[in-house]
Design a protein that fits this description.
By secondary structure, the chain is an alpha+beta fold. Helix content is 52%, strand content 14%.
C-alpha cells in the first residue's frame, strides 16, 4: 500500500517574536515522520503560517505538540493584528496530499480536535469538510466576532464548541480545526505589462467571472436582477480565484491564481484556459510559476496531459513526466524549477531518508554491495530487481511500439500497455529495499534482550512478526513478477516485431524473479509457528511458480515464431 500523506497548515497568533515562533516550530521539527516545509511570519498580521507534511498519525502528533506549545507561550489578551483571529492557534487545517481521501482526512481532523479539546482543555470548532453541522463549514462564520466577541459567543448554546469546554480563557481563546482541499498558488506569465489586459484574462477564467454589463463590457451599465443585485457572468474554471497584476521584478504582467481544488481544476487545465483567453485577446502566455509547493500527482497529471496531446506514450518515468510538465507549462521561465524543493513527496522523502536506498545506487555499486560480506542485499532483493528489469523491458517494447512509424493510430493501445508495465517495475523497485528491510527486522528481533520471562515473550513475538513479514515480502514479489508477465505476453503478440526478443528476455527475468522470491519464502517458513499460514503460502507460491513457467513457455514460443 502506498504511503498516505497529509499537509497541516496551522496559523499561530504570533508574527513578531521569533523566539516564540521557533519554540513552536521546534516541536514540529522534533517529530518523527513529518517534514517542516515553510514558516511564514507576518508582522502586520502578527500571525505565522506554518506548513508541514507527513504520514497522518505523525502529523496529528506534531500538530498537537505545536498547539500545546502555542497555548503555553501566546497570550491572546495582549494580541493585536490586521488578520481576523480568535485563538493562540487560530486555525489548523489538514489537507489530503496523496493516497488519502478527503473523508479520511476529515476524520483525522476530528480525532485531533478531540485530543486538543480533552487533553489541553481547549475549545475547538470544526470547519470546512470536518464540520459536524452546515452552519459551521464556513471559517468566516465560525470566526465571526473574532477574539473580542468570544466571551459572549461561547455563552450561546448554538455556539458550544465541538470539543473542549464552553468557557472563555482570555490567554488562549479558541481554535478552528478543519479539513480542506489542497490549494495551489499558480501564476501564469503574459507578454504584456498591462494590468488591465491581464485582469481581462483573469475575469475570463476565474469562477466568479465578471459583472455583466449592457453593451460595452467595460463601460456598460451593470445588469441587475429583480432584487437589485448585480448579475455576474461566470468564468471558465471552477474552484479558481484569479486576478491580474504586474511584477516589477520580472517586468511582466501575470494572472495570479489560487486553485482551491486541483481535483476539480488542475494546473494544466488552468494553464490551457489562460492560454486560450490570452490568445483571443491578442496576448501570449510565455510561462508560469508555482508559488510554494505542489503534490506530485498534479505534476504527473500535467505531464500526461501534454504527452497525450502529442499522441505519445504515457508509460514513461515520473522524472520524464515532470520534465514534460515543466517544459510545457514554462515553469522554468522565471527561475529554475527544482522538483526536490517544489514537490511535496520529494521534500518529505529527502528529509526522512537517513541512509541511501539500494535502488538509488548505480548498478555497479549495487553489484559490489551485493557481493560484499554483508548478507543483505541478498536473493530476495535481487529477485525483485530482476522482476523490475523484466517489467521495464516489457514497458520499453510498448513505448517503442507506440512510437513506431506507421502505427500512429495505435499509440493509445501501446501507451496503456506501457503504463501497466511502469506500474509493475515501480512496485518491484520498491520491493528491492523492502526485502532488505525485512531481513534487518529479523536481525533486530534476535538482538532483543532475553533476561526475563517478559523479555523472552516480547522477543519471541517480535521474531515471529518479523519472520512473517520476511515471508510476505518475497511472496508479494512473486505475485508482482507473475502479473507483470501479462505485459511481455502482450508485447510478444502485438508489439514491435523488431523488439520481440526484449519481450522474451523480460519474461525470462520475470520468471527468475518468481522462482528466486519463492526460494526466499521457503527458507523463511521454517521459523514460523503459524503452520496454517505456512501451508497456505507454500501452496499458493508453488501455484504461482507453475503458472509463471507455463506462461514463460508460451511467451518464448511466440517470440521464436516472430524471430523465425
Amino acid at each position: 500500500m502506498k504511503q498516505q500523506l497529509i499537509e497541516c497548515v496551522p496559523n499561530f497568533s504570533e508574527g513578531k517574536d521569533m523566539t516564540i515562533i521557533n519554540k513552536i516550530t521546534d516541536e514540529i521539527k522534533s517529530s518523527e515522520g513529518v517534514e517542516l516545509i515553510d514558516v511564514d511570519p507576518g508582522e502586520a498580521t502578527n500571525r505565522t503560517v506554518v506548513t508541514f507534511v507527513g504520514t497522518p498519525d505523525e502529523v496529528l502528533d506534531a500538530a498537537f505538540k505545536a498547539v500545546r506549545k502555542a497555548k503555553e507561550l501566546i497570550d491572546m489578551s495582549k494580541h493585536s493584528g490586521a488578520h481576523p483571529r480568535f485563538g493562540a492557534t487560530d486555525v489548523c487545517p489538514l489537507v489530503p496530499v496523496s493516497n488519502i481521501t478527503m473523508e479520511e482526512t476529515a476524520e483525522y481532523a476530528r480525532k485531533l480536535a478531540k485530543r486538543i479539546g480533552e487533553e489541553l482543555d481547549y475549545p475547538v470548532y470544526l470547519y470546512e469538510k470536518a464540520a459536524t453541522r452546515p452552519e459551521r463549514e464556513n471559517l468566516a462564520t465560525v470566526r465571526a466576532g473574532e477574539y473580542e466577541g468570544l466571551k459572549e459567543k461561547l455563552a450561546k448554546p448554538e455556539w458550544k464548541p465541538d470539543f473542549g469546554p464552553a468557557k472563555f480563557v482570555p490567554e488562549t481563546g479558541v481554535t478552528a480545526l478543519g479539513a480542506r482541499n489542497f490549494l495551489v498558488a499558480y501564476n501564469v506569465n503574459l507578454n504584456t505589462t498591462s494590468v488591465r489586459r491581464a485582469n481581462s484574462v483573469a475575469f475570463d477564467v476565474r469562477e466568479k467571472g465578471r459583472l455583466k454589463r449592457e453593451g460595452d463590457p467595460i463601460t456598460g451599465k451593470v445588469v441587475k436582477d429583480e432584487k437589485g443585485n448585480p448579475v455576474r457572468e461566470p468564468g471558465m474554471l471552477k474552484k479558481v480565484k484569479a486576478i491580474g497584476w504586474y511584477i516589477e521584478e520580472f517586468g511582466i504582467a501575470q494572472i495570479s491564481m489560487n486553485l482551491t481544488d486541483v481535483s476539480v481544476t488542475s494546473i494544466h487545465e488552468a494553464f490551457e484556459a489562460v492560454s486560450k483567453s490570452a490568445l483571443d485577446r491578442g496576448l501570449r502566455v510565455t510561462g508560469s510559476e508555482i508559488v510554494g509547493v505542489v503534490p506530485l500527482k498534479a505534476m504527473l497529471d500535467a505531464g500526461k496531459h501534454f504527452l497525450k496531446k502529442q499522441k505519445r506514450s504515457l508509460g514513461v518515468s515520473d522524472k520524464e513526466l515532470i520534465k514534460i510538465a515543466v517544459k510545457s507549462l514554462g515553469l522554468d521561465e522565471l527561475y529554475p524549477f527544482d522538483p526536490e524543493k517544489k514537490i511535496i513527496e520529494y521534500i518529505l522523502a529527502k528529509g526522512q531518508q537517513k541512509e541511501k536506498k539500494l535502488v538509488d545506487m548505480d548498478l555497479t555499486s549495487f553489484v559490489h554491495e551485493t557481493a560484499s560480506e554483508s548478507p543483505a542485499p541478498g536473493g530476495g532483493s535481487i529477485s525483485a530487481y530482476m522482476g523490475s528489469m523484466g517489467a521495464a523491458l516489457g514497458t520499453m517494447v510498448a513505448n517503442l511500439s507506440s512510437h513506431k512509424r506507421g502505427w500512429d493510430d495505435r499509440w493509445e493501445e501501446f501507451s496503456q500497455w506501457a503504463e501497466k508495465g511502469k506500474y509493475y517495475h515501480d512496485r518491484l523497485l520498491d520491493m528491492v529495499d523492502r526485502d532488505t528491510e525485512a531481513f534487518n527486522k529479523i536481525m533486530d528481533a534476535f538482538k532483543m534482550p532475553k533476561n526475563t520471562d517478559e523479555d523472552k515473550a516480547a522477543r519471541k513475538q517480535a521474531i515471529q512478526a518479523a519472520t512473517k513479514n520476511a515471508i510476505e515480502v518475497p511472496f508479494e514479489v512473486m505475485k508482482l513478477c507473475f502479473e507483470s508477465m501479462e505485459v511481455m505476453k502482450g508485447m510478444a503478440e502485438t508489439g514491435n516485431p523488431n523488439s520481440v526478443s526484449d519481450a522474451g528476455v523480460g519474461a525470462l527475468a520475470a520468471v527468475a524473479g518468481v522462482r528466486g522470491a519463492y526460494l526466499n519464502v521457503q527458507i523463511n517458513v521454517d521459523g514460523l509457528d503459524d503452520k496454517g499460514f505456512v501451508e497456505k503460502v507454500l501452496k499458493e507460491g508453488q501455484e504461482i511458480v507453475d503458472k509463471s513457467m507455463a506462461l514463460e513457455k508460451e511467451i518464448l514460443t511466440k517470440v521464436e515464431e516472430v524471430i523465425n
